Amino acid sequence: MLVLILGLLLFLGTHSLLIVAPHLRENVLATRGKGAWMLPYTVASILGLALIVWGYGLARQDPTVLYATPPALRHVTLLLMLPVFPLLIAAYAPGHIKTTIGHPMLIATMLWGAAHLLANGTLADLFLFGGIALWAGADWASVTQRPRGPASSKAPSLRNDVIAVVGGLIVYVVFVGWLHRVLFGVSPL
After folding, report:
1. pLDDT tens-digit map of 6-49
2. CA-wise closest residue to 122 among 54, 52, 67, 56
3. Which of 14, 20, 72, 97 could cross-link with 44 by S-S, CB 3.0 to 4.6 Å?
4. How many angstroms separate the Cα of 107 from the Cα of each of 42, 58, 90, 104, 139?
């Protein structure tokens, strides 16, 4: 469990710098350049992610069960996961979805975490999915309080919304029907 917790602290800590030190990035970029920021940030993120994957795998070998999830919650989990992939794509394909929601990736991350907590009841699940969902909520709260940059002069693209929804639903079907089992050894169905 320690490896998982260290990975979460490193990964989420790196991604929390804008929450706890909003001007740190700009200061480092201004004084030492892009490489001085990107190299340690990237290395810490990759190392944190690797520790999360390794630590979660270790924790699954000897799980501490906190609660048993009723089989009916699988349907709720699948329903909560439905908007996750469209929201993730909408974060990178700016349209009305992104304009309306503001930060679709953080909303997707909170939904992902909540959905997985409904389906999984071990201590490792609580740390992984609960920790990431809580972090996304804290980041969302922080981001909504920060001043926004200049608004884009381009009108939101309906085409990008269609790409986000259709593409996201296709990814959802592939992930739920096949890829989740291949990557994680568990079928959500």
Report:
1. 999 999 999 998 888 878 888 887 888 888 888 899 999 999 99
2. 67
3. 14
4. 23, 28, 11, 5, 10
